[in-house]
Amino acid sequence: MKDSIFVISGSSGSGKTSVLSMVNNIGDRIVTSTTRDKRDGEVDGIDYYFLDKDEFLSRDFVEYDTKYNNYYGTEVDEVSLKTSNGCAYVILTHQGYIDFKKCYGSRVVGIFIHTKKDDIVKMLKNRKEDNIDGRMLNYDYDLRTMVDYDYVVANSFGDMQTTIKEIERIVEIERAQ
């Protein structure tokens, strides 16, 4: 579909953001909103829309959730803007994916990035994550949900190019339909 919304999910630390920053022809990135603090190098409006809690709760969202004591969500206006020219993509939790499916139906293509637990720990250590154990709490749940997605793509530590090529192949298939 030429106006597909690619929803990308996976466990925390699975490489979703890194992989997608290098995927070609997937469309515009739907920027989500959050109440968490900016990390070094992050830019408001590029990485996230960084909002305080009151401002966040006053917005209209397709989906939102709390994770690690912060709100995360995708605004209706942002989805409309980014899909007005065709395909777009967004990184979401499983529940966010389900909410998008309810709202946008067959336009939504779910891609789950599966990464082995040991590889995730390596990736989190590489980005100097200080709460690795907390981030790994949902790993088993995430694996159980991957059956809900249209595609599952493996991402192995040190072999990101294979993952990128597989997602680009999926995008080509979906755009051709």
Automatic annotation (TrEMBL):
The lineage of its organism: Bacteria, Bacillati, Bacillota, Bacilli, Lactobacillales. Belongs to the guanylate kinase family. Residues 3-172 form the Guanylate kinase-like domain. Essential for recycling GMP and indirectly, cGMP. This is Guanylate kinase-like domain-containing protein. It comes from Vagococcus elongatus. PROSITE patterns: GUANYLATE_KINASE_1 (PS00856), GUANYLATE_KINASE_2 (PS50052). PANTHER family: GUANYLATE KINASE, GUANYLATE KINASE-RELATED. One of its GO terms (cellular component) is cytosol. The keyword Kinase applies.
